[in-house]
Amino acid sequence: MNNKNNFIGERVTTLRLAKGISEYSLSKNIGKCNNYINKVSSGTITPTIPTLSLICDFFGITLSQFFQDESTYVSPVAAQIASRLPALNEEQLQSLLVIIQSMEVSGKPEDKPSGRPDKSTKKRRKN
């Protein structure tokens, strides 16, 4: 097995496991024989470009993304968002930026509410 086969096989396995799909199921979804993905994953065979394109389509990524370095990998959802950005006007882009920034702030564990009211902000009873 050479490095090219090893990379392709490992990448297919990584994508498949992340999606929670079996080798058999992926093989059938791309119209190949039952053990096709097993052979790709083990490096026994190398998929053709059209077949690799089918695999990428299944995972919602491009061939370029398939071969990207993991450190520069963009998730399929992020790629979908990025592909729609040119259609937005400046005001919409600013609104989206505000939303993303608020998610970044609220995404920090120390900033997440515990679900319990803060004792310092108890409501006073009206008499």
From TrEMBL:
Which residues does the UniProt record annotate as the domain HTH cro/C1-type? 15-66
Q: Name one GO molecular function term.
A: DNA binding
PROSITE patterns reported in the protein's UniProt record: HTH_CROC1
Looking up Gene3D superfamilies in the UniProt record yields: lambda repressor-like DNA-binding domains (1.10.260.40)
Q: Which Pfam families match?
A: HTH_3
- Bias kind Basic and acidic residues: ranges: 107-120
Q: Which domain of life is it from?
A: Bacteria
Protein name per the record: Helix-turn-helix transcriptional regulator
Q: Which organism is it from?
A: Candidatus Caccovicinus merdipullorum
